[in-house]
Design a protein that fits this description.
CATH class of one domain: Alpha Beta
CATH architecture of one domain: 2-Layer Sandwich
Keywords: Membrane, Protein transport, Transport
Strand content: 5-15%
Shape: globular
Largest sheet: 5 strands, antiparallel
Organism: Miscanthus lutarioriparius
Number of strands: 7
Subcellular location: Endomembrane system
GO cellular component, one term: endomembrane system
Family: Belongs to the adaptor complexes large subunit family.
Number of helices: 43
Radius of gyration: 36 Å
CATH superfamily of one domain: TATA-Binding Protein
Strand order of the largest sheet: 3-7-6-5-4
Structural class: mainly alpha
Length: 845
Amino acid sequence: MAPTVPSAAKSASPSQPSGKSEVADLKQQLRQLAGSRAPDADDQRRDVFKRVISCMTAGIDVSAAFGEMVLCSATSDVVTKKMCYLYVGAHARAHPDLALLTINFLQRDCRDQDPTIRGLALRSLCSHRVPNLVEYLVTPLTTGLKDPSAYVRMIAAVGAAKLYHISATACIDADLPASLKALMLSDPDAQVVANCLHALQEIWTLEAANSEAAAREIETLYSKPVVFYLLNKIKEFSEWAQCIVLELASKFLPSDNNEIFDIMNLLEDRLHHANGAVVLATIKVFLHLTMSMTDVHQQVYERIKAPLLTLVGAGSPEQSYSVLCHLHLLVMRAPMLFSSDYKSFYCQFSDPSYVKKLKLEMLTAIANENNTYEIVTELCEYAGNVDVPIARESIRAVGKIALQQYDVNAIVDRLLQFLEMDKDYVTAETLVLVKDLLRKYPQWSHDCIAVVGNISSKNIQEPKGKAALIWMLGEYSQDMHDAPYILESLVENWDEEHSPEVRLHLLTAVMKCFFKRPPETQKALGATLAAGLSDTHQDVHDRALFYYRLLQYNPNVAERVVNPPKQAVSVFADTQSSEIKDRIFDEFNSLSVVYQKPSYMFTDKEHRGPFEYSEDLTSLTVGADDPENVISAQRYQENDNDLLLSTSDKEDNGTKGSNDSSTSTYNAPSDLISPSLISSQTSAETSLINTGGPTYSSQSNFSLDDLLGLGVTEAPAPPPPALTLNSKPVLDPGTFQRKWGQLTLALSQECSLSPQGAASLMNPQSLIRHMQSNYIQCIASGGQPPNYKFFFYAQKDGATAFFLVECIVNTASAKAQLKIKADDGTAAEAFSTLFQSDLSKFGLS
């Protein structure tokens, strides 16, 4: 047999690079090709460059070949140039010393005869983002903005924004914003105009925090000449550029109705655009411009229905979902206007589950007396869906429609039919809805109980379904013959029930049943209380102990506590406040609508990771507050302006809790506080309670008597003296922060701004100067249109008491939310009046 010939060593293919040996081989080949004038040199360079880019893609460090790549960059081949620029841009920031080697050939290429190479070189030069090379960027950018090629001017406009992020001082000193503005208003190329507009918005928005001139320049962008100039050219723009121009137009404040109609006429054809982003941006302009015109605003809803429904049926499921989210927001604001289009929201077999869920919510919202039967019939078909979450949502949707008082008779019959489907999740969801229906429509109890009584608790596995059944067994035990025995069997299996919710409902249900059918339930009650008292769950143990002591004290009182006469529930609580919904509407055509929450809830730092947002204005803490980690207000404003836009949710929740305690759904029976109950206490108990108790003055007694309506009157309090403020208050940021965290909220109010004031807020510094002229100082501010946030303080003249104010202004609605804290709470109302008076005068002078 002939000996085997050893195979020649093969070089690694571009798709399978071999690490350091491959890089060394590439470097050697690049050195050989540097300066080569062979006829096929350009083709060889291109092949080697492809191998270098392939290694980069595979994650191999090829920065060692940086010098050789620069040497081989002297070529007229555009493809090779692009690969070279890609390589340089990827490694320049990580190797700033090596990046200096690229300056000469990039500047040379910026003067090339081919506009494509000039543009590519300028883009690569601006993409280095190396602070040490800033001085080499200004001249090429200035020249690029005046280049005869639109492509180069387009690249230069974006490069100016990149330069600002690298060195704001260099960008401003070179007067690039002024050049961009002039180019925006005079350049014949639409894409150049769009890039200039985008760069100017980015530069001036960031610069406005430190410069009043920049704030004034932002105002010029929202002026009538600029807005109408851009709108007249909108058909020439790309889809991306149209969205930028339309976003600008949505922030424009017209001076009269004629301007509103002019803009709407200009943009009418944009509603038929094939791109969904353009259509949504146009709708945002229409909605925001007509907010103050009720009749026209309603007509806008009618006008935008067809384009939105067309977009829902076209394109990918992801696009349909995004459009549906915006349509969902509009449906929730004006359900009656969409009630005739209910068939457009029927679920298709091919729809993803997230699209189906959104459609179910909209079907629930638009149901009325004219379409309830058709909608409920459709929803009942979904109850047997193989997609269990959608089946659950459809059953809930039927129940929500029933709670809206539309054709309740037929809907109750449909719900009761669900109980015959013999599916655990269907039964559980249906029982929860039947419970809610009985709370609102007690007159349907006989029909519902007749069906519910045939359900075995052993067939219900889900805790919420079992809890609903137990609630009905206790509430309507007088109508259900087997109720005491069913409850007794549940008590016997107490240890096997792992859900605290079910055990809590079982305790209350047995108590209710005992007061309605004592002989049959007495044994079960004793066993229930004994099991509850030995329960390891704290809530269950406490409730059992409470019931035991209440029965021990007085069974009649226990009955009035556990089973008081109840009124039908008229309205069920909404899960989202109207303020949140309005803020989402203000951020139409953004991710806020898709996430169904305002942008501050998913962009600000207090909502990221394990951070805990403290009441302090300027500190983000993990765990306990550390005074050493407090950031000054000035530094905070420079580093994180948008964080000031967030609301203090903890403070709002605390305020709600204190206020809502006086408006409970169930009031204690009046005879629980009658004199007979008080006199039934033993003398020892009375003396024990009175010993060490607080003593009340006659003034307090008179106030209590008046509160109880006993006719005691008092002389009206004299009007408070007029409040005057110190003209030169002094309060450092640290003290402000400490006071804000320590003081309780004195007032929370909403007030209005004049239209001129809302327009003037394009320059937030103007409001700060206006309030300073009224002896109210600003210690921190931030935000972007249409939302701005300010923290003010003032001092009472002749006293050390300070007033602290959080002011959140929405320029779109011309509303301001005020939160006031004060050292002297008695003067908070007077200061609030003074502050609102000063705020209402803003922009009028």
